[in-house]
Amino acid sequence: MTLLTKRVTVLLDTNSLLLFGQGIDVFGETERLIAAPFTINIPETVVQEVERLSKKTTREGKSAKLAMAIIREKERRQKEGPVTKLLLPKGKEIPLKILPGSGEEHADDAILRIAEEAPERTAVCTLDRGLQRRLLSRRVRVLGVKHGRLAFIE
Q1: Which of 79, 91, 93, 146 is least enclosed, having the fewest CB within 10 Å?
Q2: Separation of alpha carbons 147 and 29, rounded Å
Q3: For the chain, how many structural domains are there in total?
């Protein structure tokens, strides 16, 4: 199933960013599923959460460090930095945007708030089953992992 609209906003939560550390190319998989122009947006609260995780010495911490490297490269507006060069085909740019928000807001609440603004043009990538249910009840498309690949969750 593909999501076909004028422009799609794909929101990533913390655990979807950690998928890079598990060998899942979130950007390539998103492009495979969404046959329309899209922008990948990450709420600032999610970036803060990933940054906290990146300080851990666990497997999750290593995945978070990789996610932070990708985010930082994009923030510096590098089309192709050392990390994304390994992840993306030559010349491919990551359509990534950090969304400012309140540091007080929980990451899941920020994602829900943003997704509800235009649910017909939004997809959220998350592995959190509770968040998936909340999004689906609001008619927001959800991307999750099935058999090691991103797929629409229904």
Answers
A1: 91
A2: 13
A3: 1
- Structure tokens of 35? 């046959």
Q: Do the domain assignments include residue 67?
A: yes
Q: Is 96:71 a contact under the CB 8 Å cutoff?
A: yes
Beta carbons of 106 and 49 less than 8 angstroms apart = no
- Which domain does 87 fall in, by range? 8-153
Task: Name the token pair of 134.
Answer: 């909340």
Whole-model pTM: value is 0.85
Please determine, for residue 84, whether its predicted confidence score (pLDDT) is greater than 70. Answer: no
Flag whether pLDDT at 3 surpasses 80.
no
106 part of a folded domain: yes
Which CATH number fits the domain that encloses residue 39? Answer: 3.40.50.1010
